[in-house]
Design goal:
single chain; 234 residues; alpha/beta; 33% helix; globular; disordered N terminus
């Protein structure tokens, strides 16, 4: 429990990297159903909240982390909703008017300009999510078009849990849309990173390194040279 607190209450390089991706490519995320895993203190979540998404749900495991996350989002002028203990049924969102495809993601990344439609955003839902213990049916209710995550593993043992929850979330629904995940990960340990990729592919999922494909403007001061961005899909 204490270890979760220490990790979740820290800002990480990949969080800033993913925030830059979102802020540079707002048109890619607008009118989509977005879900963030391991939101922590909310660096990426605050950026996502400015992207005019159809809906946004941010998640983490520890209640103290979720409490600070809520306060940080509110301090950034974002509307937030949650239950008193962050528990309860997760949000089930309607089908978005602008479904996403994998080709849309790939074709959108190199764009030189971004057209953003300014609109009133829906409140951000803050929910508790346990990657290892929550059952498949519960996780499946977090329906989304894009799963986002930054520095989700800080030791090898978490790779299997991340792969499990991402695999469940990327299961297509009854529509013709296929959810996609974008996960930024700092290369602190090459073996741990490779094990995460292997765990995701074992689900099985397709994993592509799109670090050098996506357009991203440098907006924050942090060491970004060791951050990789993975696009994951079925």
């Amino acid at each position: 429990h204490e270890e979760f607190n220490q990790v979740g209450l820290t800002t990480w390089e990949a969080g800033f990297f993913l925030a830059e991706v979102v802020l540079t490519n707002k048109s890619l995320f607008q009118r989509r159903r977005l879900l963030e895993l391991g939101s922590g203190v909310g660096v990426t979540a605050a950026a996502i909240g400015k992207a005019n998404a159809e809906s946004l749900c941010v998640t983490d495991f520890d209640v103290s982390v979720l409490t600070l996350l809520t306060e940080n989002l509110q301090a950034n002028g974002l509307r937030v909703v949650h239950t008193s203990d962050f528990e309860g049924e997760p949000p089930i969102f309607s089908q978005p008017p602008n479904p996403i495809t994998r080709s849309h993601l790939l074709n959108s990344f190199p764009l030189e300009s971004s057209t953003v439609i300014e609109a009133e955003t829906n409140p951000i839902r803050v929910c508790r999510l346990n990657w290892e213990r929550d059952d498949t049916d519960y996780i499946s209710n977090f329906r989304c078009d894009i799963v986002l995550g930054a520095d989700l593993i800080y030791h090898r043992d978490l790779a299997t849990a991340v792969a499990r929850v991402v695999g469940i979330l990327l299961t297509p629904d009854q529509s013709d849309t296929f959810p996609v995940a974008l996960i930024a990960q700092t290369l602190r340990n090459r073996e741990e990173f490779e094990y995460l990729v292997q765990s995701l592919r074992a689900v099985p999922l397709v994993v592509e390194d799109v670090t050098d494909v996506i357009r991203r403007e440098n907006m924050f001061s942090y060491p970004r040279q060791n951050v990789r961005l993975l696009m994951i899909y079925r």
